[in-house]
Amino acid sequence: MGNIHQNHFPNESNAYRKKRDELLNEEIKLRKKLEDIASLRRALPLGGTLKENYVFEEGTIDLSDNSSIKQTRFSELFTEGKNSLIIYSFMFGPESETPCPACTSILDSFNGIAPHVMDRVNFAVVAKAPIEKIRTWASARSWHNLRLLSSNNNSYNADYFAENRDWGQMPAINVFIKTDDVISHFYNTELLYAPSEEGQHPRHADPVWPLWNLFDMTPDGRGTDWGPKYSYD
C-alpha cells in the first residue's frame, strides 16, 4: 500500500492510494520547482536605485489616536541590522470609503504574522488614502501589528506599480534592499502584469495569501463565484 511511503489512512482503497501517489509525485516536483524559483529570485541583481526618498504619513501605535501624525521618510523604514524591506500596497484610494475586500483579507493574515516577519526584515503597508482613513479602518480590523503608511502626498504608488494610469489603485508587493547608503529596488510581484493563460487568474499574491491555498486542498477548490468579504454574518 503506497510506493512513496508506507503511511495510509483508515479504509482507503488501492485506487485512492494509486491516485494519491500520482498526485504526491507532482507535489514533490512542485516543491522542487518552488525552491528553484526562490533561488532564482534570491540571485536577482539589484534593480534601480530608489527614485526618491519618499515622505509618507504615519501615526502612533495607538490606532485610536490620530492627533500625532508624523512624516516618515522611506529611508527611515529600515531599522538597524535589517537591510531588506517588504512593502505591501493595498487598494484604498483617497476618495474611497472602504478598501478592497481582497486586500483586507490579505492584511488580516499579515497582521497575525507581522511580528514574526519583522524579527527578520522590515515590513510596511502603504495605501493612497489619507492616514486618518487608513488608521480608522485598521482600528476596526484590529490591525495592531502592522506599520501603516499613507502615500497620499507622494508618487510612490505610481512609481512602483501600485497605481495604474487612470489613478486606480492596484495591489503590489515590492522588496527593497539597502546597501551602505544606497536603497535599491529588488523585486515586484509582476505576475499581475504578465499575460495569463485563458481562464487563469494572475495570482500574483498567492505565495503570501494562505486563504486560496487552503481552498486548493478541498474538492471544491477555489470556486468561481466566491470572494473575500469584510464579514460573513
Task: Please tell me about this protein's structure.
This protein has about 230 residues and is α/β, with parallel strands linked by helices. About 30% of the residues lie in helices and about 15% in strands. The chain contains 5 helices and 7 strands. The protein has helices spanning about 15-40, 100-115, 130-140, 155-160, 210-215; strands at about 55-60, 70-75, 85-90, 120-125, 150, 170-180, 180-190. The strands form 2 sheets. It has a 5-stranded mixed beta sheet with strand order 5-4-3-6-7. The longest helix has 29 residues, at about 15-40. It is globular, with a radius of gyration of 21 Å.
Q: CATH topology of the largest domain, what is it called?
A: Glutaredoxin
- N/C terminus separation: 45 Å
Q: Main beta sheet: strand number and arrangement?
A: 5 strands, mixed
Q: Label the structural class.
A: alpha/beta
Helix content: 25-40%
> What average pLDDT do the residues reach?
94
Order of helices and strands: HEEEHEHEHEEH
Number of helices: 5
CATH superfamily annotation of the largest domain: Glutaredoxin
Name the quaternary structure: single chain
Percent strand equals: 15-25%
Please tell me what the overall shape is.
globular
Q: Which radius of gyration do the C-alpha atoms yield?
A: 21 Å
What are the defining features of this structure?
single chain, 233 residues, alpha/beta, Glutaredoxin, 2 domains, five-stranded mixed beta sheet, 29% helix, 16% strand
